[in-house]
């Protein structure tokens, strides 16, 4: 679309909106066609009784770019699509018109599962920004961080010999140009640390906080075969109805000691997923809970024995429960069936 045609379309929009001030700004434009259209539209508005400003703004050099109304780069994160899968959304204004909307789905192992690209008008992008900021009470996810996560997941997926969704490669120049360079390490949510620096971590039950974040629905994110076996041996002969919650947690802690497979999961996929859960809590306004979950993820990454970190036993318990429930579903021990099975 030419610059002239874009401005003529803008004149039509201003006329429909009865925006006399906007039309007045174009009545002395250098482009004859734009000038003529604006003056004609002003005459029509005047005949309808619309008040016309007497003095025009000095927009004789007005261009489409100067008249655009977009929100700039914006981003969002959520975990509502699938258990332990993070949906990353990024909207970047195009140089000429509208915005490109990127939507990527990343698992806790940083594998890019799916990636789609859509188009937004400037108006749609502005409304999206307003909706996101309103829903999060002004809190936001940095666009640069989301772009970095997308590029990191793309590179990690490629190096892991999985197929990279073609849509991201088609738009790779846009993402890399926006960032300036590709990330050299996994992007950490340091924006959370800055935003929550003065917030005291929640003192409420960590298990309940994790349940609120749907952690109990996550699939097993580590090789739990040895842990299951050790835990089964420790609890052999015990009556399930007689085991208290405290006793169960104690058994899990003892069985978890020195488990290298668990340590790998805690420092990697589980810490990654917890960071995103903390970001969701941050957006929801649960700041104390977000600080608690983020602290758990950081402590797990930094500890020599992450299975001994305060609160990890609650996380491991939910992982084991989820795995046991999944096993029961596969063996037909629970009512209902998995709808995914019908799609084959």
Please describe the structure with a list of short key phrases separated by commas or semicolons.
344 residues; 3 domains; 15 helices; 52% helix; 10% strand; elongated
Quote the beta fraction: 5-15%
CA distance, first residue to last residue: 45 Å
**What does the radius of gyration come to?**
27 Å
Query: What is the strand arrangement across the widest sheet?
Result: 1-2-3-4
- Biggest β-sheet strands, sense, barrel: 4 strands, antiparallel
Tell me the domain tally.
3
Runs in which pLDDT lies below 50 for 5 or more consecutive residues are: 57-61, 336-344
Query: Whole-number average pLDDT?
Result: 87
The helix count comes to 15
**How many strand units?**
4
The SSE string, one letter per element, is: HHHHEEEEHHHHHHHHHHH
Pairing-aware structural class of the strands and helices? alpha+beta
Q: What is the molecular shape?
A: elongated
Q: Helix share of residues?
A: 40-55%
């Amino acid at each position: 679309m030419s610059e002239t045609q874009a401005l003529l379309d803008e004149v039509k929009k201003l006329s429909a909106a009865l925006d006399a001030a906007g039309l007045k700004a174009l009545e002395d434009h250098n482009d004859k066609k734009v000038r003529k259209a604006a003056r004609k539209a002003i005459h029509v508005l005047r005949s309808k009784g619309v008040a016309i400003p007497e003095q025009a703004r000095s927009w004789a050099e007005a261009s489409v770019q100067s008249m655009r109304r977009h929100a700039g780069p914006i981003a969002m994160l959520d975990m509502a699509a699938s258990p332990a899968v993070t949906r990353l959304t990024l909207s970047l204004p195009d140089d000429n018109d509208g915005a490109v909307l990127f939507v990527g789905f990343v698992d806790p192992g940083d594998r890019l599962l799916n990636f789609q690209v859509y188009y937004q008008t400037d108006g749609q992008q502005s409304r999206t920004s307003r909706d996101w900021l309103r829903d999060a009470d002004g809190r936001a996810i940095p666009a640069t961080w989301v772009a970095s996560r997308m590029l990191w997941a793309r590179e990690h997926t490629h190096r892991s010999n999985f197929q990279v969704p073609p849509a991201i490669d088609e738009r790779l120049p846009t993402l890399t140009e926006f960032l300036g360079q590709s990330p050299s390490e996994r992007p950490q949510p340091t924006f959370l640390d800055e935003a929550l620096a003065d917030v005291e971590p929640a003192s409420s039950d960590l298990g309940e906080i994790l349940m609120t974040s749907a952690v109990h629905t996550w699939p097993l994110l580590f090789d739990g075969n040895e842990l299951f076996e050790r835990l089964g041996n420790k609890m052999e002969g015990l009556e399930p109805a007689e085991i208290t919650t405290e006793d169960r947690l104690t058994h899990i802690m003892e069985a978890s000691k020195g488990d290298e497979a668990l340590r790998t999961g805690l420092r990697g996929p589980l810490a990654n997923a917890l960071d995103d859960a903390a970001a969701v809590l941050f957006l929801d306004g649960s700041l104390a809970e977000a600080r608690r979950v983020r602290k758990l993820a950081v402590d797990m990454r930094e500890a020599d024995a992450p299975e001994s970190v305060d609160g990890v036993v609650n996380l491991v318990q939910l992982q084991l429960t989820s795995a046991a429930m999944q096993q029961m579903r596969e063996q037909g021990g629970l009512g209902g069936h998995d709808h995914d099975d019908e799609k084959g």
